[in-house]
Amino acid sequence: MYDSIHLVIKESDLDSPLSFLEEIPCKIDLDKRKCTQYSVFGHIEKMSVMVYGATLSILGSLSTWNKGNNIYGIEFKDIKNAIDSLGKCLGVPLDKAIVKRIDVGQSFKMDFLPHLYYPSLYHLNKFGRSDLKVTSLYFGKKSKKEDGGNLALVFYDKNAQLRKKGDSYPLVQKSLNLLRYEFRIKDTKTYFRRDIRCFELFSADFYRNVIHLWYSMYCDIDKRLEILEELYNPKFNGVNELNDSCVALCIHAFDIEKAIEIASEKGMITPQNKHNVLKRVKKIKEGLVNLNLGPSLIDELSEKIEAEYKRQLEELEKYNDSLPS
Q1: 82-to-120, 202, 276 alpha-carbon distances in Å
Q2: Ranges for the Replication-associated protein G2P N-terminal domain (predicted)?
Q3: 88 and 174 share a domain?
Q4: Mean pLDDT throughout 43-55?
């Protein structure tokens, strides 16, 4: 499920002598406006390639490099071949390159438009929450100095992004509701407290660790039901129906019986009124149970993310079992 990666390798890391300034320009499409005597800028396919003296930097989507798009993530079994292919095209073995950044992501076919799921992703401890227009939701740190400041979680409408870029994607219907969830490690050395080398990207242990982070960070988000229609069919034809609808919302939002008990202990409600209110709450609660509600929007998303996590682990085990002993 790797998507964007940032690789950096120095000439001194190579087993055989090689001058990046001499060799790389003939392997890529150059951006001659940016190139100087000591630096090279360009791209190969959709991977950005930069040379600063004796240092080569590569930035782009490994999924796109492997299959032409990043609608769905690259499978573990294809990672090594994709990296080897990139290195071969550049004429540089990349196994010893330092991985500066890793994005892990997957797209999901949802029943509804992606932005309808964002309000339910309510809070992530120590992370700021930003709605980027209507198409994206971003959890990140305001300062890189904060603990976890190099991490970000992004949810966005994949079809909307592709339409904006003008990309063609015949494998996916443009009418699909594609919600993408990405977990971004923007500074791997700070997070893992050591340099991560490129060969670790196709290590089963490292991959297992990264997809677990992708899943566990999602699980850490506080979720809540946000849309009224997710709760039950509300009725507003009169004051009594309005009151019952509001009580039903309170039942889902917090422990209303406990709140009534606390109010009673503080003398804010008489014993008779307490009895009447609890009786009304109980009746409305029983009515909600009898509705036999289907899964909420957030349940749908959570189930799909959990299923993808389990599938990745299963595929990893199958790959390990297929290796010669």
Answers
A1: 36, 10, 68
A2: 42-188
A3: yes
A4: 95
Is pLDDT of 324 > 70? no
Q: Are 120 and 84 in contact (CB under 8 A)?
A: no
Same domain, 279 and 179: no
CA distance 301 to 111: 10
Q: CA-to-CA distance for 275 and 186, rounded, in angstroms?
A: 56
In a domain? residue 216: yes
CB atoms < 10 A from the CB of 282, how many?
11
Each as own residue / partner, the long-range contacts of residues 227-230 (CB below 8 Å, 24 or more positions apart, any chain) are 227/116, 227/119, 227/120, 227/297, 230/296, 230/297
Give pLDDT tens digits for 214-227: 999 999 999 876 55
Q: Evaluate whether 140 touches 130 at the Cβ level (below 8 Å).
A: yes
* Same domain membership, residue 63 and residue 99: yes
Q: Cα–Cα distances in Å, from 18 out to 9, 15, 35, 224?
A: 12, 9, 19, 56
Q: Which percentage of the chain shows pLDDT scores above 70? A: 86
| pTM, 2 dp | 0.78
Q: Which of 60, 73, 46, 71 is CA-nearest to residue 163?
A: 71
Does residue 138 have a pLDDT over 70? yes
Tokens of residue 253, six digits = 């939002």
Range of the domain at 271: 239-289
pLDDT greater than 60 at residue 230: no
Same domain, 161 and 247: no
Residue 88 DSSP code: H
Domain co-membership, 197 together with 312 = yes
Tell me the per-residue pLDDT of 4-23, one tens digit each, with 9 for 90 and over: 999 999 999 999 999 999 99
Please check whether residue 5 is in contact with residue 25, taking contact to mean a CB–CB distance below 8 angstroms: no
